[in-house]
Amino acid sequence: MGKETQTNLTEFILLGLSSDRQTQLLLFVVFLIIYLLTVFGNLLIMLLIHLDSRLHTPMYFFLKNLSLTDLCFSTTIVPKMLLHFLVMKKTISFAGCSIQMFFFLIMGCTESSLLAVMSYDRYAAVCKPLHYSAIMTPRVCIVLAITSWVSGVLVSLVDTTFTLSLPYRGSNVINHYFCEPPALLKLASEETYKAEMAIFAMGILILLGPVSLILFSYGNIISTVIQIQSADGRLKVFSTCGSHFIVVIFFYGSTIFTYMQPNTKKMNKGNKVISVFYSVITSMMNPFIYSLRNKDVKEAFRKVLKR
């Protein structure tokens, strides 16, 4: 049972994904493999882009930023999660919970912005090929990347401030595997309407805004590709767009479901499973979907192996 106190809580108990010991050990193995693949895949992408001059293009510049985001995103959540699979006392201090939430939100919101920027980059490359180098100059690329990171920090500051400004004096049991606003708000001792509205407004800005740009970009890409005479060319672009859309559905679909619905006082198992998609799975998928299937990246990898 969680503690009942009249002062602000100093620690929380995370219930995790399962209370069954055998299931926890199985989940430990599964999430350890996912985390190792995430770390390996994203570090490899960053290394290859750094070493191969042919990958010093706008697309790979944004992919390098995405890999850094995914690496930090996963590292903010999974190591603590793995530890909790192995120990009986699954606690996290209030400070630790606050730090985890702040950095999780920075990485998640930055990733949302970067995915939108990357879709715009592809739109410029496919739909305006003659003007691409003039549109996506090094200066523009740097500004877009910095804007993505700054937007992540600002949204995180708003969400974290509104969530942590509430008093937490009741139960200290979080029915989740990490600290994020929707799970924490369920424990607040006062009315959460203002915090919910702030998080909802930030969700419109950082989730629905990028999704709209992505749909616009890929809609124009598809209409342009349909006009391509070469069947191979059409197939190549549709294959790329299809794989990118898988990431969009996984990441934005699960995040919008969690952050854009009214808060309830109960966190069910389905909500926790859905949050796995945006907090763990997409960080593993991105290197393989965006980069490691790419011919240029494969060639860069072969060159590194021959050194």
Written overview of the protein:
There is one protein chain. With 307 residues, the protein is mostly helical. Helix content is 75%, strand content 3%. It is built from 10 helices and 3 strands. It has a 3-stranded mixed beta sheet with strand order 2-1-3. The mean pLDDT is 89.
Summary?
The chain is 75% helix and 3% strand.
Q: How far is it from the N-terminal to the C-terminal residue, by CA?
A: 58 Å
Overall residue-averaged pLDDT value: 89
Principal-axes shape call: globular
The number of helices is 10
Tell me the β content. under 5%
Can you count the beta strands?
Answer: 3
Query: Biggest sheet, open or closed, and with what strands and sense?
Result: 3 strands, mixed
Q: Helical content, roughly?
A: over 70%
What structural category do the secondary elements indicate? mainly alpha
